[in-house]
Write a structure and sequence with these properties.
688 residues; alpha/beta; eight-stranded mixed β-sheet; five-stranded parallel β-sheet
């Protein structure tokens, strides 16, 4: 129970000041006239003024409130390595026991986990949120159990009480870390790109000068090279294929180091082609020749070399060669010296006329077997005696002509396997049929009859389901055959046209081995911690996918078919890091977040970042390895830490349960006292 004097004037405060001034003037006048009772008059006026001010005693019934100590336990990823989890538990038990013996004290426990994405340890954010939930006038101390590696020190709030840090870790901790400091987001195929790596030791590391570095691309068997420690390493490499290339760099875990979570780094580089170099050889002028040229030239990423044989050897018109404005066909230069400069060779209605000797055609076959690509756009000549099939190239072409050529209209169809093949998958959706019966594209009017060899794949068919577009793999390269020369009708818009440009684009990318056009492929599209697993296959079913987590545990995911040949599933990874996906035939690797997260950039416990904030509150930093700490009560403004102890400042907070106000004297008592003083002054002055 406490009492406080309060005033509740009966008249406005300004009027009270006026009355006070008049009373003072009256007393001064009495003094000037030397009235013997002037002091009694003054006391009477004072009593009246006090009565007008209406003084009272305000009494409060207070209930003492307990002091609050906020304890923040860091359980982020870096606090789960080595023995830090048990250190956390031991330190928390010590603090709770110490606070339990201090009377009138409560503990507010806050547990800090991993931040969203790669935010790291948001320790100060947790402290700010905890203080926002508590009355600041009751907070007697803040205790952090942490390794000191926080990533939001700039968010430190204004602290109302001493701040202490109980530091995990051991004095002899050490760790080795792999850093990729420079890696491009994309690189041009065939050109060298340099990555910068560094291996650094932290803490009480052993004296080691070099370690083996393993490099794996897309989960393939790694190569291992020794690299020095503590130096920037320039690693030159060329991407093996277009699309996303996942490069994994790993150093082995050494005995005694804290964690291997930062011994691996994953870099994802998108491989792009600078230019698609295409050699187009037209055997003779025809309506579709210009269409082929226009389609290829319309793409700025295509470097096209186009030759049309206008004057074959059998054509003798008597015009001297030096008077012709034609460019001689540089057969030796193109097909012997520079053939490997081209990504794709297209023979458009080409027939054997002695221009390309058999040795050159054999060189083209070797070019394909070593990874090149050849596309045959055939016309009637493909079924004739001078067909290019009847050359060394015939051994690798995906269709043997029967000498029959059909000259009647037909609508190209996608075969059953073509519905699942990435070259023709969903192609009919680009030209929908209003009647809903088959694709909505226009007819072609010529088809060369061919027999498809074993191993080739027919993805489009023509008249009476005869092969129209056939694909095959030869050695490291690929070949394709279009058994018609009427694809140009789609480009001209005949009967509504058709998706010739898209078909050619897909066909070229498939022949260039672009990953998104592979028939059998497994890949992942990550969004945050969620991955979309995509499996493409020519089969009607596919098996489950086994996912290997960063910690080595596995999860089996079943895929669902969403379209012919395409199976998908959504799966959320429980933690950031590198995941490996495998089914019976395919594998893929993907990094959710960085493979070496921010939590593992610095793993040696250190209070360097916290020291200025702790010092500003006169708190202390106590290593758990030094033993248990004692907790004492200290006065505000005094040092709150010493050897083996930390302090909290009692706040003496209270809650007002009841308030009562009683006047000092009743009004009649003030009037009686004033009257007595006035009468006393009159009697004293009357004696004189």
């Amino acid at each position: 129970m406490t009492g406080t004097l309060v005033l509740d004037p009966m008249i406005p405060l300004a009027l009270l000041y006026v009355v006070t001034a008049l009373a003072a003037i009256g007393v001064a006048l009495a003094v000037w006239r030397r009235l013997a009772g002037w002091w009694l008059r003054g006391l009477a006026g004072l009593v009246l003024l006090i009565a007008l001010a209406n003084p009272a005693i305000q009494q409060e019934d207070r209930e003492a409130l307990s002091d609050i100590v906020v304890v923040v336990v860091d359980e982020s990823a870096s606090q789960r390595i080595s023995d830090r989890a048990s250190q956390n538990a031991a330190a928390l038990a010590n603090i709770e026991a110490e606070l339990a013996r201090i009377p009138n004290t409560e503990t507010r426990l806050v547990t800090l986990g991993d931040g969203e994405g790669d935010a790291g340890t948001e320790l100060m954010t947790s402290v700010a949120q905890a203080l926002a939930d508590e009355p600041r006038a009751r907070v007697a101390g803040i205790i952090l159990i942490t390794d000191g590696r926080l990533h939001d020190i700039e968010r430190a709030p204004d602290l109302p009480a001493p701040l202490h840090a109980i530091l995990t870790g051991q004095p002899d901790d050490w760790d080795r870390r792999l850093i990729v400091s420079n890696a491009p987001a994309f690189a041009i195929l065939g050109e060298e790109v340099t990555l910068t790596l560094r291996i650094e030791d932290q803490g009480a590391a052993p004296n080691t000068t070099s370690v083996p570095l393993s490099i794996s691309i897309d989960g393939e068997p790694p190569i291992t090279v020794p690299v020095p420690i503590g130096e920037d390493i320039g690693l030159p490499l060329q991407l093996p294929h277009g699309g996303m290339n996942v490069l994994q760099f790993t150093i082995p875990e050494a005995d005694g180091e804290l964690t291997n979570r930062n011994n691996t780094a994953v870099v994802q580089i998108n491989g792009v082609r600078d230019r698609l170099r295409v050699l187009l050889v037209s055997g003779e002028p025809h309506p579709g020749e210009r269409t082929w040229r226009n389609l290829l030239k319309s793409d700025a990423a295509v470097d096209l070399v186009h030759f049309t044989i206008l004057r074959p050897p059998e054509k003798q018109d008597g015009v001297p060669v030096n008077e012709l404005s034609l460019i001689a066909f540089p057969t030796r230069e193109l097909f012997l010296e520079k053939i490997h400069d081209f990504d794709l060779i297209i023979f458009d209605r080409y027939r054997r006329r002695g221009i390309l000797p058999s040795a050159y055609l054999e060189n083209i076959r070797t070019y394909v077997e070593q990874g090149g690509a050849v596309l045959i756009s055939s016309g009637p000549e493909y079924g004739a005696a001078e067909s290019i099939y009847r050359s060394p190239l015939g051994e690798i072409l995906p269709g043997a002509p029967t000498a029959r050529v059909f000259e009647e209209g037909f609508v190209p169809q996608i075969t059953d396997i073509g519905q699942r093949h990435p070259v023709t998958e969903g192609l009919d959706a680009l030209s929908p049929n209003p009647d809903g019966d088959g694709p909505g594209w226009g007819r072609w009017f010529r088809l060369v009859d061919v027999l498809v060899p074993e191993g080739a794949t027919t993805v489009m068919s023509g008249l009476d389901n005869r092969p129209l577009l056939t694909l095959n793999r030869i050695g490291e390269g690929r070949v394709s055959l279009i058994a018609s020369d009427h694809s140009w009708l789609w480009d001209r818009g005949y009967e509504g046209g058709g998706p010739q440009l898209e078909l050619l684009r897909r066909l070229a990318h498939w022949m260039m081995k672009e990953p998104e056009l592979e028939e059998e492929a497994l890949w992942v599209e990550p969004t945050g911690q969620t991955m979309r697993i995509i499996r493409r296959t020519l089969e009607t079913t596919t098996g489950d996918v086994t996912i290997t987590h960063p910690d080595g545990s596995t999860t089996v995911v079943t895929l669902e078919e969403i379209s012919p040949g395409r199976f998908e599933a959504l799966w959320t990874g429980p933690e950031i890091g590198l995941y490996r996906l495998e089914d019976a035939d395919q594998s893929a690797v993907i990094a959710l977040g960085p493979s070496a997260p921010r939590e593992f950039e610095q793993t040696i416990a250190s209070a360097e970042a916290l020291q200025p904030l702790v010092d500003s509150q006169r708190g202390g930093i106590m290593p758990i390895a030094a033993g248990d700490v004692n907790i004492r009560s200290v006065r505000a403004g005094r040092p709150a830490a010493g050897r083996g102890w930390i302090g909290i400042t009692p706040r003496d907070a209270y809650r007002t349960a009841d308030i009562s106000i009683k006047p000092i004297l009743p009004a009649w008592a003030f009037l009686l006292l004033a009257a007595l003083l006035i009468v006393g002054a009159w009697l004293r002055e009357g004696r004189r």
